[in-house]
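Researcher: Structure prediction, please.
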Amino acid sequence: MQSELLDPLWIDICLQDKTKWDRATAQNYYEIFRKGAEAGSPFAMCICSRFSLAGLGQSRSAEKALEWAAMAVACESALGHFEMGAFYQRGIGLPVHLDQARAHYLSSAKLGFGFAATQLAVMYQTGQFGSIDMTVLLSTQPLLISLMMRWLH
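Model: Predicted structure follows.
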């Protein structure tokens, strides 16, 4: 998985209980991540996406959240592809499109994000792509197992 150096402040902010933030704090933190995103950080783009979706530090906007996630995808970010997969799976800011969700989760998994492999497995197991096609499941199983094993170690 590609890596980027994260500002320790970003990590501290992400670990905080967002329910305890007042409006000014949320706006300040959003601005910190927005500056990082505009400087080219895919991680910060994804956090801005989450802030936009939750209405933290700005008005709630699925469209803005989608824009930030699309910017992270353009950087070939594993986390960006995961976010975009979730948007397509749940119909956030665009219509539900499970084939696009699968494509983004698969891209994220191939870039090394283990949660994406787990999400794909759950979607296959629950039949979200229609009846379970064992040939597709078996063809992706080595990739999913490999990614899960790498993630667990």
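Model: Residues 134-152 form the longest helix (19 residues).
Researcher: Thanks, that helps.
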